[in-house]
Amino acid sequence: MTTIGVIVPAKDEARLLSRCLTALAEARVRLRLVDPSVVVHVLVVLDSCRDDSAEIVAAHPSVNALAVQASCVGVARQCGLRHLLDVVPGADWFANTDADSAVPPDWLMTQLAAARDGTDLLLGSVRPAPEDLTEVELAGWRARHDLGDGHQHVFGANLGFNRRTLARTGDSGRCRFTRTSI
């Protein structure tokens, strides 16, 4: 059996978080159709949130939340990983996206294929949704990001890795967090 832990850092993302969680739910449904034996644990890491992000997570019963005070997406992501390692000891693949992202319906199937093929690390691109940006912001993003083969951008919002790769990093980082009741 394969177990996938999905980590979603969020800092005041109430405006886009529901879209993210709905997209993940659709990806879970699609994955379940292909292989119902795969277990997926989705964890939203609420990083210093002052908005309604926690309430949005609570409206998605198949999603768990962890509150942290990191004010740093990388630290929040690491805290989420540490939490999943503690509460889901059988997780063998970790997929990462961001609260302002909406994964495609086949995203978890792609993550599963990488996990089963023995892939150590899966890096993917992201593209902003045009409706989320002004024309000037979108043009600026496109000017800074060439996503053709060989591009230099690595996006935590589309990243996957296996437990073996994590163990080889020697990462022994510690996170301080508070658990939420949702």
Describe the structure.
Pathway: Carotenoid biosynthesis; staphyloxanthin biosynthesis; staphyloxanthin from farnesyl diphosphate: step 4/5. One of its GO terms (molecular function) is glycosyltransferase activity. With 182 residues, this protein is an alpha/beta fold. It has one domain: Spore Coat Polysaccharide Biosynthesis Protein SpsA, Chain A, CATH 3.90.550.10. 37% of the residues lie in helices and 20% in strands. The chain contains 6 helices and 7 strands; from the N terminus they run βαβαβαβαβαβαβ. Strands 5-6-4-1-2-3-7 form a 7-stranded mixed beta sheet, with helices on both faces. Strand 2, helix 2 and strand 3 form a beta-alpha-beta unit. It is globular, with a radius of gyration of 16 Å. The relative contact order is 0.22.
| CATH fold naming | Spore Coat Polysaccharide Biosynthesis Protein SpsA, Chain A
By secondary-structure content and strand pairing, the structural class works out as alpha/beta
What do the pLDDT scores average to? 85
- What is the N-to-C order of secondary-structure elements (H for helix, E for strand)? EHEHEHEHEHEHE
Rg estimate, integer Å: 16 Å
Main sheet summary:
7 strands, mixed
Number of separate helices: 6
Architecture per CATH nomenclature, i.e. the level-2 architecture:
Alpha-Beta Complex
The share of residues in extended strands comes to 15-25%
CATH class identity: Alpha Beta
Gross geometry: globular
Poorly predicted runs: 172-182
Count the domains: 1
